[in-house]
Give the backbone structure.
Amino acid sequence: MIENLMDKFGLYLEALFRLILAGAIGGVIGWERGSNDRPAGLRTNYLVTMGSCLMMMVSLHASTLHLGGDPGRIAAQVVNGIGFVGAGTIMIKGMSVKGLTTAATLWVDAGIGLAIGAGQYFIGIMSGFLVI
């Protein structure tokens, strides 16, 4: 019984680590954008990376509970949803386009969160480093 409790505690710690790591990477990306007076700053980027990490962890957990579940289904919807949000940030004014980098940043934030949520720490951390 105590071993089972310790196993669950370890899983909870890893889930917490994933959420904190994803949020930290998103926060740094957002801080960098905010310090340069760009839209979608610290809070937005933090929420996108942490939220997508959370959804990926839930998707992976749900696929283990239901035999034959596809963990990629929720991840695909995250990508679609963030694409929709990003499209709302793009403004066309005459011959100039504004908000394209903001949309791309939110999209890559979601990818970083999904990677970390899936336990792909190296990919998530390196992607965050390259974005910054």
